[in-house]
Amino acid sequence: MKIADMNWMQVESYLQNDDRCILPLGSIEQHAYLSLATDALLAEQVALDAAEPLGIPVFPVVNYGIAPYFSAFPGTVTLKLATYLSLVRDLLDSLANQGFRRIVIVNGHGGNSPAAGLATEWMAANPEVQVKFHNWWNAPGTLACVKSIDPQSSHASWMENLPFTRVAGANPPAGVKPLIDFARYAVLNPALAREYIGDGNFGGAYQRPDEDVLKMWAIAVEETRAQIEGPWR
């Protein structure tokens, strides 16, 4: 359930019986023909779908993340590493202060990975709280499903092409883009990175039948729900 659909009295009542919550993390960045908010939309939706039958509150997604390498693409917004880590730390402090003791961070953007290390450090200083950091897109079952369908799948390919990440009037190509050379890409500045990757897709089919996409999504929801359910200490 969405925190946006609750008032403070309902949250207070909820905390008398459960101390779990979900914090989705996203990013506003280029996704080729898909929405610039793809990572935020996917992180929030997989969290909501996973949490709904459990009655666990989902906080609004943190839309902005760490994406300096895409800064040459219009519409991309990025935070400095120090800013982002301070933001996540403040959010964890606030959730703990409210009484949440089991927090699942559902991350939708690889660039946000430094927050996983922060969560581990934060737990050491707050031993009464447990935090899980879950990258929904590369959880074992989800990733295995994606690769079984299209081994070249990567950023901005069909695996992120869901009905709610598609942009009206945009027409992704029907073909398959060869996987980029990640070693080469890793040393490029933003302008050269844009020149190298072109439309922004890192590799794989731009589109797949919705049957394939929804098969992957169902596994992603299941794996995310498993993180919410446990194990907890």
Automatic annotation (TrEMBL):
Pfam families in alphabetical order: Creatininase (PF02633)
GO MF annotation terms: hydrolase activity, acting on carbon-nitrogen (but not peptide) bonds, in linear amides; metal ion binding
GO biological process assignments: riboflavin biosynthetic process
Cofactor: Zn(2+)
Keyword line: Hydrolase, Metal-binding, Zinc
InterPro entries associated with the record: Creatininase-like_sf, Creatininase/forma_Hydrolase
Similarity remark: Belongs to the creatininase superfamily.
Protein name per its UniProtKB record: Creatininase family protein
Organism lineage string: Bacteria, Pseudomonadati, Pseudomonadota, Betaproteobacteria, Neisseriales
